[in-house]
Amino acid sequence: MTNCAICKDDLKPEEGQIIWRGDDCRVILVNDSDLPGFCRVVWNRHVSEMTDLTHGERDHLMALVFAVEEAIRHVMYPDKVNIAALGNMVPHIHWHVIPRYKDDAYFPGSAWSSRTQEPSKAALEGRRALAAKLPNAIRSAISQMH
Amino acid sequence: MTNCAICKDDLKPEEGQIIWRGDDCRVILVNDSDLPGFCRVVWNRHVSEMTDLTHGERDHLMALVFAVEEAIRHVMYPDKVNIAALGNMVPHIHWHVIPRYKDDAYFPGSAWSSRTQEPSKAALEGRRALAAKLPNAIRSAISQMH
């Protein structure tokens, strides 16, 4: 769709990086200063809702989402993982997969809620260092999907 | 887990109603005055993350989530459906499945974001009337799952 930001696929380097691309989906490591390791799994074709996909397509997309969750847990040791497909702003299917920590800026709210606290710089730096390992870990998790 | 609100399964009538119960999951129609039709799909056993489930269990749970989405779209004609598994407050797997409308109280933010507008009473009343049809529609969608 010509006016869809996700269809345009013109991710700016400051917004994040595409770390894996397949025929149907791509995985983005989002550059979020508050939430290191924030990933997005995007369905390449313009579709609004999960139930617009075939059953096989849904399974494939969710398997990717869970591969990303697995890599995030393995690399980043979050206290919780948040998974969400909202799309109110851009109705083109994309899943947010977000490592959450009890001391992060929004905990225990959602990543779209008001800030609750200021995380320590040391904690954020540590998580950014771990997030640098995510691209390889995610590619590896996807390559092992069955 | 004894201190887990979801394990206790003591949903108060004012909070919502269980509209379907299976061996592994249950579906709740949440009583949310701002967001009629808000549903939750809960994994009965205490598990924190989707990747703690087996692949078969994940598939089963997501098939239920998508059956609920399908029924919501069929009955309530939302502008968008939001799907999320957060669990920061209660780390026991539960999926929120939420019909969203451009004039609802939080649009285009998440259901956990700040209010953006006051929806008209007429619109809310209309959606509450539709939501009354959801329990049967969801049970029917689940019975047709394959």
Give me the secondary-structure topology.
2 copies of one chain form a homodimer.
Chain A lengths: L4 H4 L7 E6 L3 E6 L8 E5 L11 H22 L3 E6 L8 E7 L20 H11 L2 H10 L3
Antiparallel strand pairs in A: 1-2, 2-3, 3-5, 4-5
List keywords for this structure.
146 residues; homodimer; alpha+beta
> What characteristic shape of chain A results from the CA principal axes?
globular
Whole-number mean pLDDT of chain A: 96
Would you count the extended β strands of chain A for me?
5
Gap between N and C termini of chain A, in Å? 31 Å
Question: Quick one: which chains have the greatest interface?
Answer: A-B, 30 and 30 residues
The Rg value of chain A, from CA coordinates, equals: 15 Å
Order of helices and strands of chain A: HEEEHEEHH
Strand arrangement across the biggest beta sheet of chain A: 1-2-3-5-4
Structural class of chain A: alpha+beta
Summarize the amount of helix of chain A as a percent range: 25-40%
How would you classify the quaternary structure?
homodimer
Instruction: List the uncertain runs of chain A.
Output: none
So how many helices of chain A?
4
- Summarize the main sheet of chain A: 5 strands, antiparallel
Proportion of strand residues of chain A: 15-25%
